[in-house]
């Protein structure tokens, strides 16, 4: 069963052809990485699938078998489909002045009656669910803090908690770790992988560095100049193949040091002591370069 | 233009024969030109207005300053015998301002959204903005005269006048705050399947709230001052008392009233400053 089906998606911003006929099919329960250099169209593609942008004529996007947009017009079930798609962004896009719990509760707006949502009358059960979602991503203690007081990694996990409360079937992540330090980045990717595994949520995550794709995703889609140039197993993306695909822009896509293999990073229980040496190690390798 | 770059290679031949870009390379001369045009325009406007505004009479400020001193000396000995009455009327004026500001606040919230270009399509934006222009363009005093005809002399006419004029101003200030919001949190809310109104409630209002509160308190201050003036045309409050005593040449009483007005304005300013600190 397909979760996301994109056919011939084109988008032109002024003179720039951001997307030039993208075809992409993602099945339910998959975790797919989307890589590409800056300006290759990753964010634009994700924004279209999220229903935040409309494509040009000839484009078609279907979500869970329903037409989400066709020829630049939103389908009749647009709002309902947005509710089925959770989105997290590079800049987190939380409402900075609202407490974290309100930000998380916003996730259910698409599921409850519009009047109740508009006045913010959330039931006790819904509030409990929000706290549970925050617990799930490891930050239950920050519920009543303003979102602006959280660190970047915590904000991103709060955004993930919002999509959990939303009970979305698809999670789109637009460069979720690009503004985070390596330890927070790994924690966010761990949470995404965990949600994909235990909830069966379909995850499409755009990444700047191919290492994360190799560690966390079985399948990788690579974009260049608004076209899909590779779609296949992440393991097959060797450094030489990437050089072939991206030429000089390749340097942008790799970390100076290899990431530890899946599972190795978190052998037992506690996370903090395991993550910290990784940060230190990477900093050392960064200095000479 | 690029003369300064020429001697450099000669002065430091060891640096090689790289051509230094001229200091004005890539400079946009049209900007400098337009800056001069704007300056010339401002000077021309001031020169043209000099005659009609009778600015030439400025010398009288010095030659006839004795007249001013004589008039002002009447105010030197304030008479506070009736202070209870003045304070009572001052409170009425503040109450007019409070209701006028409150009513316009209620109406300005929806209009602040409807007048923001990033919130509504043009066919909603322009009618709403023009309506607010009309509210704003007509002075409170004119509105007050209009309402006096309908609801009679007294404070309520003042409330209505403040309400209408102030709505025009606050809706504009509110919409400018809305236009400068960060659109990304709003997209975050939209992506959950929220309705347009919910996007505003959860994504827009929290972002603009500190500014809106601050604008409202500032307008309350302004309205206390304006409500005093409205008393002059019969809308009640301290203004009416003040105008009558000035017309009757009761300068010591007028002076006492003026002091009470100034103290009230200072107090509103201090209070609103504290409230603003608390909210932001």
TrEMBL record, chain A:
<protein>
    <submittedName>
        <fullName>Phosphonate ABC transporter ATP-binding protein</fullName>
    </submittedName>
</protein>
<dbReference type="GO" id="GO:0016020">
    <property type="term" value="C:membrane"/>
</dbReference>
<dbReference type="GO" id="GO:0015416">
    <property type="term" value="F:ABC-type phosphonate transporter activity"/>
</dbReference>
<comment type="similarity">
    <text>Belongs to the ABC transporter superfamily.</text>
</comment>
<feature type="domain" description="ABC transporter">
    <location>
        <begin position="4"/>
        <end position="250"/>
    </location>
</feature>
<dbReference type="InterPro" id="IPR027417">
    <property type="entry name" value="P-loop_NTPase"/>
</dbReference>
<dbReference type="GO" id="GO:0016887">
    <property type="term" value="F:ATP hydrolysis activity"/>
</dbReference>
<dbReference type="Pfam" id="PF00005">
    <property type="entry name" value="ABC_tran"/>
</dbReference>
<dbReference type="InterPro" id="IPR017871">
    <property type="entry name" value="ABC_transporter-like_CS"/>
</dbReference>
<keyword id="KW-0067">ATP-binding</keyword>
<keyword id="KW-1278">Translocase</keyword>
<keyword id="KW-0813">Transport</keyword>
<keyword id="KW-1003">Cell membrane</keyword>
<dbReference type="InterPro" id="IPR012693">
    <property type="entry name" value="ABC_transpr_PhnC"/>
</dbReference>
<keyword id="KW-0472">Membrane</keyword>
<dbReference type="InterPro" id="IPR003439">
    <property type="entry name" value="ABC_transporter-like_ATP-bd"/>
</dbReference>
<dbReference type="InterPro" id="IPR003593">
    <property type="entry name" value="AAA+_ATPase"/>
</dbReference>
<keyword id="KW-0547">Nucleotide-binding</keyword>
<dbReference type="GO" id="GO:0005524">
    <property type="term" value="F:ATP binding"/>
</dbReference>
<feature type="region of interest" description="Disordered">
    <location>
        <begin position="261"/>
        <end position="289"/>
    </location>
</feature>
<dbReference type="InterPro" id="IPR050086">
    <property type="entry name" value="MetN_ABC_transporter-like"/>
</dbReference>
